[in-house]
Design brief:
The protein is mostly helical. Helices cover 79% and strands 0% of the residues. It has helices spanning 3-17, 21-34, 39-51, 55-79. The longest helix has 25 residues, at 55-79. The protein is globular and about 30 Å long. The two termini are 25 Å apart.
Length: 85
């Protein structure tokens, strides 16, 4: 993660704490356009969408998180000396 992305994640987190979910969504979507595998941005986007009342979009985002986690768990279990539980 680069410095701009770190700054944007912190800014989005501030908007979330202020309950300005739509402002946070804009920032998080921008991050995900550049870094689609950013778990933190995707998870926070799901949180914001749920808090803003868009449960269907929140569930879709969480499904993406789960898919990515499952993929990395499988890769790690295949190539690493330890297992992910």
């Amino acid at each position: 993660m680069g410095n701009d992305e770190d700054y944007e994640l912190v800014t989005a987190a501030c908007y979330i704490r202020l309950k300005k979910y739509q402002d946070a969504v804009g920032i998080l979507e921008k991050i995900l356009q550049r870094s689609p595998k950013n778990f933190k941005a995707l998870y926070n986007l799901s949180f914001c969408r749920r808090a803003a009342g868009s449960q269907k979009d929140a569930i879709a985002d969480l499904s993406k998180v789960r898919t990515k986690i499952t993929y990395y768990e499988n890769m790690c279990n295949k190539f690493c000396f330890f297992r992910v539980y």
